[in-house]
Design brief:
There is one protein chain. With 367 residues, the protein is α/β, with parallel strands linked by helices. It has 2 domains: 121 residues, Response regulator (Rossmann fold); 189 residues, Hypothetical protein af1432. Helix content is 52%, strand content 7%. It is built from 15 helices and 5 strands. It has a 5-stranded parallel β-sheet with strand order 2-1-3-4-5, with helices on both faces. Helix 4 links the parallel strand 4 and strand 5. The longest helix has 45 residues. The two termini are 30 Å apart. 37% of the residues are buried. The N terminus and C terminus are likely disordered.
């Protein structure tokens, strides 16, 4: 669940192999059906065939298809009539029309019926393959948008429920933080342990920066709550898939929005929002730079990165504290504030701390 710097310096996740696409070919000419299947045989498809619109609808009732190739001119039910019915009853199926007349009226009617593309007969292999690829791309785009909208609605619902639950669970900030940690532990023991370690290291860094006790307490609470946004994201979306990446990168904003609704914890919100920002502006969710990132966020970023590398929760190999600090050092003034890195070294008793004092003293570096 943690999202700090990983040992492989943010290496990309391997893509999952794409499963075969289910294709339905509807044409009253068996020879045409065979030609379409042969041309698309190397595209990673599984095929079903139908000679009439009625037969096609029966097949789709049993199992949907992702792409359907429909002949425009068929007896009883035309391809345009079938496309219109598919648009209403099977909206997730991308439709490609096969027509012997590439006239404007036919093309317009096909688009109005919900077709994603059309191919004129006699078609060339390359044209058919490209039409298939465009149909798959359009279907995937629509499916991703639909899933993203559903995920956003679910995140909003769970965020509101979580904020209400936390607000009603206790009247003090300490009680609210405890309620959150219990909720986090219920989903992931490792994530809860990570939150405690980040809180402990953050406070040590804050002490090295000579923050006053009230600010240290806000820092501790923000560290315990820095991943609260994940609780509003369905577990099925936490696998790092590309389709859910945008939502996952919003977890600091989601956490900020949850905590902001709870008056007793509102002072932690800025740190939660900013702990994934980078000094060079390459972070998220707002792309803040340098002193625009609040100090509490800069502290959390360093503590979170150190713990994620030394005690990873998502399968990476752990590294020593010295190696983690070395990687953090490589990212000073890029991702991490030299003032905070100096404080980390001081908190860890690292003799190299003195070498960072000049960098940390630059105007605005430790604001």
């Amino acid at each position: 669940m943690s999202s700090g710097v990983n040992v492989a310096a943010l290496r990309a996740l391997p893509e999952k192999p794409r499963r075969q696409t289910s294709v339905l070919i509807v044409d009253d000419d068996a020879a045409v059906r065979g030609v379409v299947a042969k041309i698309l045989s190397n595209c990673g498809c599984t095929f079903r065939m139908a000679s009439t619109g009625a037969e096609a609808l029966q097949l789709l009732e049993k199992e949907p298809s992702e792409v359907a190739f429909l002949d425009v001119h068929m007896p009883m039910m035309s391809g345009l009539e079938l496309a219109d019915q598919l648009r209403r009853e099977h909206p997730d199926t991308a439709i490609v029309m096969l027509t012997g007349m590439a006239e404007f009226g036919t093309v317009l009617a096909a688009i109005q019926a919900g077709a994603a593309d059309f191919v004129a007969k006699p078609f060339k292999s390359g044209e058919l393959v490209k039409a298939y690829q465009r149909a798959v791309e359009r279907r995937d785009t629509v499916a991703r948008a639909k899933r993203a909208a559903e995920l956003e609605r679910e995140v909003a619902r769970q965020s509101a429920e979580l904020a209400t639950s936390l607000a009603n669970s206790a009247s003090t900030a300490a009680g609210l933080v405890e309620a959150f940690v219990l909720a986090l532990r219920a989903r992931s023991e490792a994530a809860a342990a990570h939150a405690f370690r980040v809180a402990e290291l953050s406070v040590r860094i804050g002490q090295s920066l000579e923050l006053p006790p009230p600010e240290l307490e806000v820092l501790r609470r923000a560290a315990l709550l820095h991943e609260i946004g994940y609780l509003a994201i369905p577990e099925s979306s936490l696998d790092g898939s590309a389709d859910d990446a945008a939502t996952l990168r919003r977890y600091p904003q989601i956490g900020h929005d949850i905590v902001s609704r709870v008056p007793a914890l509102a002072d932690c919100a800025r740190g939660i929002l900013a702990h994934r920002e980078h000094l060079d502006g390459s972070g998220y969710p707002l792309g803040l730079q340098a002193a625009a990132i609040p100090l509490i966020g800069r502290i959390l970023a360093v503590a979170d990165a150190h713990d994620t590398m030394t005690r990873p929760t998502s399968g990476e190999q752990p590294v020593s504290s010295a190696d983690a600090i070395a990687l953090i050092e490589q990212n000073v003034n890029l991702r991490f504030d030299p003032t905070v890195v100096t404080a980390l070294l001081l908190a860890m008793g690292d003799p190299r701390e003195a070498t960072y004092r000049a960098a940390a003293a630059r105007p605005g570096a430790g604001e």
